[in-house]
Amino acid sequence: MDGELQDRMRIAVVGCGAMGSVYAARLAGGGHDVLVVDAWADHVAAITERGLALSGPDGERTARVRAFGAPPAEPVDLVVLAVKAADVVRAAEGLAPLLGPSTVVLTIQNGLGSAEEAAGVLGAERLAVGIASGFGASLAGPGRVHHNAMRALRFGAYDAASGPGADEVERLAAAWRTGGFDAAAVGDIAAMQWEKLICNVAYSAPCALTGLTVGEVLNHDEMGPVSRSAAIEAWETARALGIGIDVTDPVALVRNFGAQMPAAKPSALLDHEAGRRSEIAFINGAIPRESAKAGRTAPVNATLTALVRTREADIPTRRS
Predict the structure, then answer these.
(1) Pick from 107, 109, 113: which is nearest to 164 by CA?
(2) In a domain, 4, yes or no
(3) d(CA 266, CA 316)
(4) N or C: the chain end with fewer CB closer than 10 Å?
């Protein structure tokens, strides 16, 4: 931990999958009062009995957190909404027992669109958005999580005019820093979402469709150009919408991104390997939706999304 002392926060992590488990374990290790909510009964039982075991590059630890199958009637300071993007509305609709007058909800999902859905349920005034970059995590079994890498978390108000103020967002970032995260508050969270999305669209659908890793797609004679075309299309969409992205060369951006983690598998591929539907509608599928707002089309990402959704048609809808 970096030693930065802050007031102890009451935190609920809703959606204790791989990423949610990493968040919960490290926040508890930072001295915060953490509870988790998850529908996986064996996971909840293991955490209750033995604690939440975390392993990774900086060693192993076991965090004592309270675990529940449904939100308890305990208003907290912060709710971390860490469910899959497709589950955001359902999860948000069940948060009432955790919400007090000043509770902030921090939603952290892949892609674009889930924050808007959360705001529709919860209101923009209590909503903050988080972006996780360079993370790799997997559940090793009930009550056990492993993470391979942990780069950066960036937080911002969903609506700068009506949402949590700059001081409140900085307070959240400071709380995460006590858990050892590289966490910071930013003024323009939308720009950072798009910069990450440009990288995600380059690899999510291409990897899911082919089974290739990020590095393999990057260097592939056939899929490499498709990957780069998807990224260029996303970049052009962001510029057409007036998003203040700090990217002048999307191809260089995604090449650098892929070179840093060549063995990585995007979440869409991991979902397919686990027999789950992916969040492709919020990643590559977000580009055609956003392009339409600017009077444009996005045929590369639309085609990639259609191919992934076709492949997923026979996968039953179930808990992610």
Answers:
(1) 107
(2) no
(3) 21
(4) N
Residue pLDDT, tens place only, 118-133: 999 999 999 999 999 8
How many helices (H) and strands (E) the chain has is answered by 12, 12
State whether 67 and 182 are in the same domain.
Answer: yes
Is 18 in the same domain as 108?
yes
Q: What distance in Å separates the CA atoms of residue 57 and residue 84, rounded to the nearest whole number?
A: 25
- Least Cα distance to 241 among 112, 132, 130 occurs for 112
Residue 201 lies in a domain: yes
Characterize the bridge pairing of strands 33-37 and 52-56.
unpaired
Domains identified in the chain, total number: 2
Does residue 318 lie in a domain region? no
The answer on 85 and 149 residing in a single domain is yes
Contact 8, 36 (CB under 8 A): no
Q: For residue 137, give its domain range.
A: 10-187
State pLDDT tens for residues 75-97: 999 999 999 999 999 999 999 99
Q: Please, what is the angle between helix 286-293 and helix 189-210, to 10°?
A: 140
For the cut 70, the answer to whether the pLDDT of residue 208 exceeds it is yes
Distance CA(282)–CA(108), nearest Å, equals: 13
The answer to whether position 316 is within a domain reads no
Task: Please calculate the CA angle 295-300-302 and round it to the nearest 5 degrees.
Answer: 70
